[in-house]
């Protein structure tokens, strides 16, 4: 790939994501006692949003009259809370990283296939954790001696999508920048990366952007940045610091891959633009995830998005069981093989040095 000749300035017209502004912000007494909770409180107030101080630490009154009303209210609510004790007992998260941890739970976007559906308890309120310093400090206990330990921060949230109201992602990148043998991984469908470019990450943060065809992004990923905006964000993150970029090793998560009509053309068009945007020397990785669903996620998503165009037809899928006996529906082997060979071959000739970390 030729060396870049220009500063960070992607010229294509892009639809930036609209910053999420919650209609309701609540803070618990415990969160208000935390210095990081106060930082978020001030940040939210400076955005002109009123903050309700709760009298108790339990969140109540979050439900509407039905699931859709509950969903609508919850997705417009930011709750600043302290993470429970369970957040300090980290769980492995293969194949993405050694461990997962959480800066927040819940996400302001509206993806009709959302991975969180059914994973989190209760209404999908966005809960931002006020005891962030303790959460970060605890990660050191999970460092594996003599090797790099990786920590994934986006299993239960999109940390970039709420960064303007939390500041927690920047703080986490700074923290990892000061650690040895600890790497941070996060993924997003948003594009407001400018504040992350000057941070001293020291190569210890591996940001990824989730990409899909324009059709999937426009029809099924409400509230997120357009594909072009995400590609522009990746370019900024990967661009060397001397050229005004972030100098990060970056990643692309192609997910969820769906063989919709014209899928080869649409994914080819996506990869063409990505290749063009990363036309300079940089480190990039790929993760490839096909669409899947469980009976629980299907039921909830169909309640949240009754007019969804997602294909939830079990009869065209193969049934798989996880190690706890839970069911999931994936594409049959013949479709999987067709998709896999397409992406492997397209990526190999466009990004010959970029590893595909996994296919699933
Ligand atoms: S960005 Fe991720 S977490 Fe947020 S709604 Fe979409 S799939 Fe769910």
From TrEMBL:
Keywords: Lyase. The keyword Lyase applies. Its EC number is 4.1.99.14. GO terms for molecular function: 4 iron, 4 sulfur cluster binding; DNA photolyase activity; S-adenosyl-L-methionine binding. One of its GO terms (cellular component) is endospore-forming forespore. Pfam families: SPL (PF20903). CDD domains: Radical_SAM. This is Spore photoproduct lyase. It comes from Adhaeribacter pallidiroseus. The gene is splB.
């Amino acid at each position: 790939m030729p060396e870049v000749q220009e500063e960070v300035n992607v010229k294509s017209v892009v639809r930036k994501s609209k910053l999420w502004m919650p209609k309701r912000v609540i803070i618990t007494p415990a969160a208000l006692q935390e210095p990081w909770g106060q930082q978020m409180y001030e940040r939210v107030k400076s955005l002109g949003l009123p903050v309700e101080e709760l009298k108790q630490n339990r969140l109540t009154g979050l439900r509407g009259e039905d699931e859709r009303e509950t969903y609508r209210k919850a997705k417009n609510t930011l709750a600043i809370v302290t993470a429970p004790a369970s957040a300090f007992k980290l769980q492995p998260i293969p194949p993405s990283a050694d461990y997962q941890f959480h800066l927040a739970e819940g996400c302001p976007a509206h993806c009709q296939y959302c991975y969180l559906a059914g994973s989190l308890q209760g209404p999908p309120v966005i809960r931002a954790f006020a005891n962030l310093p303790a959460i970060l400090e605890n990660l050191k206990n999970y460092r594996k001696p003599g090797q790099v330990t990786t920590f994934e921060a986006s299993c239960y949230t999109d940390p970039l999508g709420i960064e303007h109201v939390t500041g927690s992602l920047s703080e986490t990148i700074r923290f990892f920048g000061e650690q040895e043998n600890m790497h941070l991984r996060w993924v997003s469908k948003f594009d407001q990366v400018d504040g992350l470019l000057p941070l001293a990450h020291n190569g210890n943060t591996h940001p990824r952007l989730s990409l899909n065809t324009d059709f999937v992004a426009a029809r099924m990923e409400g509230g997120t940045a357009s594909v072009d905006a995400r590609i522009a964000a990746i370019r900024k993150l990967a661009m060397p610091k001397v050229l005004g970029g972030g100098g990060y090793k970056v990643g692309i998560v192609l997910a969820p891959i769906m063989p919709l009509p014209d899928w080869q053309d649409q994914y080819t068009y996506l990869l063409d633009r990505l290749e063009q945007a990363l036309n300079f020397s940089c480190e990039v990785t790929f993760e490839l995830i096909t669409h899947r669903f469980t009976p629980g996620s299907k039921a909830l998503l169909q309640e949240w998005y009754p007019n969804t165009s997602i294909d939830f037809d079990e009869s065209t899928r193969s049934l798989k069981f996880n190690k706890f006996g839970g069911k999931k529906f994936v594409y049959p082997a013949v479709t999987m093989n067709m998709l896999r060979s397409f992406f492997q071959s397209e990526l190999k000739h466009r990004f010959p040095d970029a590893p595909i970390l996994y296919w699933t």
